[in-house]
Amino acid sequence: MEGSKLAELLEKYIDxxxxxxxxxxxxxxxxxxxxxxxxxxxxxxxxxxxxKERIYNHILHNTGESEDEEEESPSxxxxxxxxxxxxxxxxxxxxxxxxxxVLYQHNQIRTMQMAADDASQQQMESITNNSDQIYKxxxxxxxxxxxxxxxxxxxxxxxDSKSRIVSISGECFFEVTKNPKCxxxxxxxSIITKVWGTSFFVRDNDQSNTAEVSVLTGKVSVxxxxxxxxDQPSLKLEKGEVMLYxxxxxxxxxxxxxxxxETVENDATLQIWKRVNLFFDNKPLGEIIPVLNSTFHVHIKxxxxxxxxxxxNADMAGFNLPDVLQxxxxxxxxxxxLGDYETDIELE
Length: 348
Hints:
The protein is of the alpha+beta class. It is elongated, with a radius of gyration of 36 Å. It folds into 3 domains: 118 residues, no CATH class; 146 residues, Jelly Rolls (Sandwich); 75 residues, Phage tail protein beta-alpha-beta fold. Strands 1, 2, 3, 4, 5, 6, 7, 8, 9, 10, 11, 12 and 13 form a 13-stranded mixed β-sheet that branches. Strands 15-18-17 form a 3-stranded mixed β-sheet. Strands 14-16 form a two-stranded antiparallel ribbon. The termini are far apart. It has 8 helices and 18 strands.
């Protein structure tokens, strides 16, 4: 394109009088001398007009002209553009390039900020129970998890909109808030558990050659962890998964690489997690302990005889054993410790 025609086209572009085809020519001209990627093609109309105005004013400044000077005739204006064309082209190229760089840096910062926001949503929290008691944790979706001693739970501060994925090591009991649109998935050492119901127990730790999942209510599915599902577990039931219902458990024999379901009517693992209605009206602890032992199939003992004379007045409707033990701690100022087996508990 000849210099005079290009000058006229640029003037029309600055004044906002270009057709779509002419705008395309101007951008093609810009790209012909600017080797870097065109970072201005996606800017808004307001930003584009603002950039054009800045280009025009800067051209006038760099060529020694002023918008306040006496208005020229069209022919004089055209001759002026032809004479000044090298300076106009140079100034326009510089300003557009600078403007593009500024906008590009702005977009990069915005992208980094969005990435940082996404990263913050995926920030993880980890809870390790180093005590000899059962620790209760609340998840972002209001689900509850009880961690047995020497167990660990890891979960994001904010769950993803499509799935709720947590990781555990050791022994944990879950009561999961129902949300069919956002499946709940537990990732442990050797198995993956998907929640299709509400409450269940997972045992999977480094000290054992087996892993197991026992269902109290609802239903869950269990699968062996593989290279295929370790990072992105499928949200659908896949081949090889074992579906479990109440009074069922799945046992994974790690050495043999076998996952098998079992039906158990009275699973000792689940007895302490059953929710029951208990009411004690000024009863001594010595009378309460036999009731708890019978109800939850455990063996609670006291280390000091004087504890048996402590009086309790409490309504424990809908409590499981960990809830009862927590209530005893707060109301009677007693402590407890789990023995080698979950069913052995000592009060002190």
